[in-house]
Amino acid sequence: MLSKRIIPCLDVRNGKLTKGIKFKGNVDIGDPVATARMYYEQGADEIVFYDITASSEHRGIMLKVVEEVARTIFIPFSVGGGISTLEDMRAVIGAGAEKISVNSAAVKNPEIITQGAAAFGSQCVVVGMDVLKVEKTQAIPSGYEIVIHGGRKHMGIDALWWARHVVELGAGEICLNSIDADGTKNGYELDLTRLIVDHVSVPVIASGGAGTPQHMVDAVTKGGASAALIASIVHYGEYTIAEIKDYMAQQGVKVRRVW
Q1: Has 11 been annotated as catalytic?
Q2: Count of the separate structural domains present in the chain
Q3: What phi and psi values does residue 197 have, to the nearest 5 degrees?
Q4: Which entry of 11, 51, 158, 182 is annotated as an active-site residue?
Q5: pLDDT 10s digits, 174-222
Q6: Taking a C-beta distance cutoff of 8 angstroms, is the pair 85, 112 a contact?
Q7: Is residue 259 domain-resident?
Q8: What pLDDT score does 25 carry?
Q9: Is 158 a known active-site residue?
Q10: Helix axis angle, 111-120 relative to 86-94, nearest 10°?
C-alpha cells in the first residue's frame, strides 16, 4: 500500500505567502521560501506553489521565487499559476520544479496537457480543478462545475466529465479543490473527492477545507484521495506536519515519517 501524502500549499501573491477563504479576502502571512523550508524539515511529502494572480493578471509566473524555493527543499515541488504554453512549462521545470500544475490554461486550451505530457512525461503534469457545487442540470449532471481565474469565472463544464477528459489527454495527477470548502477548516468535500477518485485512473489530491488531522484521515479513507493538500492549519501554527502524520498513523493510515 502506498503511503498517503501530506502536501502544504503555498499560495503566493506579489512574492508573499497569502491565504484567503473561498478564494476571497486574501491577506499576506509570510515568506514562501522560509515557509517551504520549514515544511520540508517537518516532513512534508511535497510542496505546491501557486502564483494565484498570474492568470487573472495575464502575466507569467514569478520564476525567481520558484528558483529560491527549489534551492531550499529536497522533495517534489509542483508549481502552478500563469502557465499557459509549453515554453512556460519548460521555464518552470528549468527553475527547479518537478511538476507543472495547469488549471485555467488547461480549460481554455486542453492541448497544453497533451503537449506537456509528451515533452516531460505525464508524471510531471498536474491538472488543478477548481470546483463549485451547483444545481444538477443537463449540462452539469454531477452537480459540480469547473470555474477558473480563482473562482471568478464559471465555465459551464461538468467536473466529472472534465476529470475524465484531462486523464485522457495525458494528465498524471489531479489536484481537486472545492471552492465551497476552501479555507473554511470544516473538512474536505468528501462527496466530490470520492466521485472523482472512483472515475479516474490517476492519483487525486484532495484540496480545500482541512481544519483538523481527522479531516486528512477522512480525505484519504472516506474520500479515497492519494494525498491531502493543507494550508491554513499549518500556516497559522495550529499543527505541525509531524503532528498531523503522527495522528494519521495512529488512525491506521500509512504515511512517510522522517523522525
Answers
A1: yes
A2: 1
A3: -55, -40
A4: 11
A5: 999 999 998 788 999 999 999 999 999 999 999 999 999 999 999 999 9
A6: yes
A7: no
A8: 45
A9: no
A10: 40
